[in-house]
Design brief:
The complex is a heterodimer of chains A (about 300) and B (about 260). Chain A is of the alpha/beta class. In chain A, about 45% of the residues lie in helices and about 20% in strands. Chain A folds into 2 domains: about 240 residues, 3-Layer(aba) Sandwich (Rossmann fold), CATH 3.40.50; about 55 residues, no CATH class. Chain A is built from 13 helices and 10 strands. In chain A, the strands form 2 sheets. Chain A has a 6-stranded mixed beta sheet with strand order 6-7-8-3-9-10, with helices on both faces. By secondary structure, chain B is mainly α. Chain B folds into 2 domains: about 180 residues, no CATH class; about 80 residues, no CATH class. The two termini of chain B are about 45 Å apart. The chains are: A alpha/beta (about 300), B mainly alpha (about 260). The interface between A and B is medium-sized, with 27 and 23 residues. The complex binds adenosine-5'-triphosphate (ATP) and magnesium ion. The site of adenosine-5'-triphosphate has 13 residues of chain A, from strand 2 and helix 1.
Chain lengths: ~300, ~260
C-alpha cells in the first residue's frame, strides 16, 4: 500500500492552555514494501505520526493518504484501507484484556469477520512467527506471562491481522538484548517473506540500522532528516542532535575523516567500516611505506 | 492531556492566592445567595460580583462559559417545568395549555440560579488546585475527626484520586485507539454490543489502574508514609488579612442583597 503524508499538522488539546503542537507540516511518502525507521528524541511526535498513518487520529491540518484515500475518512473505502494497516502501540502489552493467549490473538481476526477455522490458523501462525509455541501458550492466561512474552503476544495479535503495512512503535523497548535480537530477526524474516511495508519507531539507532533501509528523523514535530539509513547513521552530528553520543565506530569514522582519510559516511555498519579502513590503510601503506604511519602517529 | 470543563488552571491572581478555606466558604455563600435574594436589583448585583471575581481571577471567558454546557439539558428541563406549571396572567393559550408571564419569570429565574451556581463552582475549581481543595476541605471538616471520621486519610485518598483523573482519561483514549487498530468497533451498534465493545478498553484500564495503585502504595511506604495524626505538611495553610477581608466582603454582600 502506498502511503502519502501531506503537510500534516497535529495539535493536542487545541484552544486550551495545554495546547501542544505534536506535528508541524510533515510531508513524506512511503512506497509499498519499503522498510522505514522513524527516529527522534522523546516527545518529537513519532507515536503521533504513526497513529495518523493508521488513521486513528484526525489531522488538525493536512492529510494522510492510503493508496489515495484519506486515512481518517469515515467511508467504507477508507475503513477497508485502514484494516490493512497494523499498528502495535508503544508498550502493546498494556492493551491485553482476554482470558487466554489464544483469545487475545484471535481478537483482531474475529473483528475482521473471519470464520473459526481461519481464525485458528492465523492465531497459530502469528504465535509461531513471534516465537511462542501455540500448544504451550495458547491456553495460558496472558496476565501471568513475563513482560517479554506479553510483548510477543501483543505483537502476534497485530500480525494476525495480516497487515500490508506493519507499524511497530518501539517494539523492543524494555526487552533484554537476546529477546531484542530474536524479535528483530523474526520481524526481518516476516517482512522478507510477505513483502509488506515495515515502519519501525525506535530510540535504538543500531537496531534500526539493521532492520531498515530508510530513516526519517523527527525533532519537535518536524522532519529534520530523511534518507538512506547507512548514510544518515554514519553521521555523528545526527546522533548528537538526537541527544545521543555517537557509537565508537562513528567516532572513529569522524576522527579518520578529520585526519583527511576520504571515508564516505555510507560505510556502515561496523563490518563495512572496518573493511574500508583496512583497504585504505593497505593502500597508504603500500604507497608511502612506513612514513605515513609515523606521520599519522605524530599528528595525534 | 484532556482538559475537563472547569479544571484547575495554574495562574497568579488575587483569587488564586486566597486561602482555600476562605475561598470555599465564600464560594458556598455565593452559591446560596441566588436562592435567597428577592429583588431584581439584587440579581444584577450578584451577576456583577461574580463577573468581578472572574475578572480578578483572570479566568478566560470562553472556557468559563463553556462549563454551562454541562447543565444545558437540566436548565432546559427546569425552564420548561416552571414555564408550564406556574399559574398567573396568561401569556399564550394553545388549546388546553396556557402559559403565563409568571411561568416565564419563574423559569428564567431557575435558569439564572443554576447558571450562577455552576459559574461559581467553576471559578472555585479553576482557581484552586485539587491539592489545596482537599487541604481546605480537610480543615473545614476537621471537627468531624473528633467523632472518629478519618478526615485526613479521606483527604489523602481524594488528593490521589483527583491527581489521576486526567491520566485515567488519557489512558482510556489511548486504549480505545489501540483496540481500534485491531479492528474493534468501540461504542457503536445496539446497546448490548456497545456495552460489550467497551470490555477491551475497560479491562486493561483497570489492570493499569490497579498496578499503578500498588506501585504508588509501595512508593509511598518506601518514603515512610503512614496514616498517623502527627503527619506534618510542607505547605501549611495560612489565613491572612486578605482572606479575612474576602470573607467579610462576601458576608457584607450577603447582608446587603438579602435585606
Ligand atoms: N494525548 C495527548 N495529549 C496531549 N499531548 C500529547 C498527547 N500525546 C502526546 N502529546 C504530546 O505531543 C508530543 C509528541 O508526543 P508523541 O507521543 O508523539 O512523542 P514520541 O516521539 O512518540 O515520544 P516517545 O519517544 O517518548 O514515545 C509530546 O510533546 C507530548 O507531550
Ligand atoms: Mg512514542
Amino acid at each position: 500500500m502506498h502511503i502519502r503524508v501531506e503537510c500534516l499538522t497535529h495539535i493536542y488539546a487545541p484552544g486550551t492552555p495545554a495546547e501542544r503542537f505534536a506535528l508541524r507540516e510533515i510531508s513524506l511518502e512511503i512506497e509499498p514494501g519499503e522498510r522505514v525507521g522513524i527516529l527522534g528524541p522523546t516527545g518529537s511526535g513519532k507515536s503521533t505520526l504513526v497513529q495518523h498513518i493508521a488513521g486513528l487520529l484526525k489531522p488538525t491540518v493536512g492529510q494522510v493518504l492510503l493508496d489515495g484515500v484519506p486515512a481518517h475518512a469515515p467511508t467504507a473505502e477508507a475503513r477497508a484501507r485502514r484494516r490493512r494497516v497494523g499498528l502495535a502501540f508503544q508498550y502493546p502489552e498494556q492493551q491485553i484484556f482476554e482470558t487466554t493467549v489464544f483469545r487475545e490473538v484471535a481478537f483482531g481476526p474475529r473483528n475482521l469477520g473471519l470464520n473459526g477455522e481461519e481464525v485458528t490458523r492465523r492465531v497459530r501462525w502469528a504465535l509461531e512467527t513471534v516465537g511462542l509455541d501455540p500448544e504451550a501458550f495458547g491456553a495460558r492466561t496472558p496476565f501471568a506471562l513475563s513482560g517479554g512474552e506479553m510483548r510477543r503476544v501483543a505483537l502476534a495479535s497485530v500480525l494476525a491481522l495480516l497487515p500490508r503495512v506493519l507499524i511497530l512503535d518501539e517494539p523492543t523497548a524494555g526487552l533484554d538484548p537476546r529477546g531484542r535480537e530474536d524479535l528483530l530477526a523474526r520481524l526481518d524474516a516476516w517482512q522478507r517473506e510477505t513483502g509488506a511495508t515495515l515502519v519501525v519507531v525506535s530510540h535504538h539507532l543500531d537496531e534500526v540500522a539493521r532492520l531498515v533501509e530508510r530513516v526519517v528523523v523527527l525533532q519537535e514535530g518536524r522532519v529534520v532528516a530523511d534518507g538512506p539509513a547507512r548514510a544518515l547513521l554514519g553521521d555523528g552530528n545526527l546522533w548528537r542532535s538526537l541527544g545521543l553520543a555517537p557509537p565508537p565506530e562513528v567516532a572513529l569514522l569522524e576522527a579518520l575523516q578529520q585526519l583527511g582519510w576520504p571515508i564516505p559516511p555510507e560505510c556502515w555498519p561496523r563490518e563495512e567500516l572496518a573493511r574500508e579502513i583496512l583497504r585504505q590503510w593497505q593502500k597508504r601503506h603500500s604507497q608511502q611505506g612506513a612514513r605515513s604511519t609515523q606521520h599519522a602517529a605524530r599528528s595525534r | 492531556m484532556l482538559l475537563l470543563p472547569g479544571m484547575y488552571m495554574a495562574a497568579d491572581s488575587p483569587i488564586h492566592r486566597l486561602d482555600p478555606r476562605a475561598k470555599m466558604g465564600a464560594a458556598l455563600v455565593l452559591m446560596v445567595l441566588p436562592f435567597s435574594v428577592q429583588r431584581p436589583l439584587a440579581y444584577l448585583v450578584l451577576i456583577g460580583v461574580v463577573a468581578a471575581v472572574a475578572w480578578l481571577a483572570r479566568a478566560p471567558l470562553k472556557p468559563l462559559l463553556r462549563t454551562l454546557r454541562t447543565v444545558f439539558w437540566l436548565a432546559v428541563i427546569m425552564f420548561v417545568f416552571y414555564f408550564f406549571t406556574t399559574p398567573g396572567r396568561p401569556l399564550l393559550t394553545l388549546g388546553e395549555i396556557t402559559v403565563t408571564w409568571e411561568g416565564l419569570i419563574a423559569g428564567g429565574l431557575q435558569v439564572y440560579r443554576l447558571c450562577l451556581v455552576v459559574i461559581v463552582a467553576a471559578l472555585l475549581t479553576y482557581t484552586t488546585s485539587p491539592l489545596q481543595m482537599t487541604h481546605g476541605l480537610e480543615a473545614l471538616l476537621c471537627p468531624l475527626a473528633r467523632l472518629g471520621v478519618p478526615v485526613r486519610e479521606l483527604g489523602m485518598v481524594m488528593t490521589i484520586a483527583l491527581r489521576f483523573v486526567p491520566t485515567f482519561f488519557d489512558e482510556m483514549e489511548t486504549l480505545a485507539r489501540a483496540q481500534r487498530a485491531r479492528g474493534a468497533e468501540i461504542g457503536s451498534g445496539p446497546p448490548w454490543r456497545r456495552l460489550r465493545s467497551l470490555v477491551p478498553v475497560m479491562v486493561p484500564l483497570f489492570v493499569l489502574a490497579f498496578r499503578r495503585a500498588e506501585d504508588l502504595a509501595v512508593a509511598m511506604e518506601a518514603r515512610g508514609f503512614r496514616c498517623s495524626p502527627h503527619r506534618t505538611r510542607l505547605y501549611c495553610l495560612s489565613f491572612t488579612r486578605w482572606d479575612g477581608l474576602a470573607v467579610l466582603l462576601v458576608l457584607g454582600l450577603a447582608i446587603l442583597v438579602t435585606r
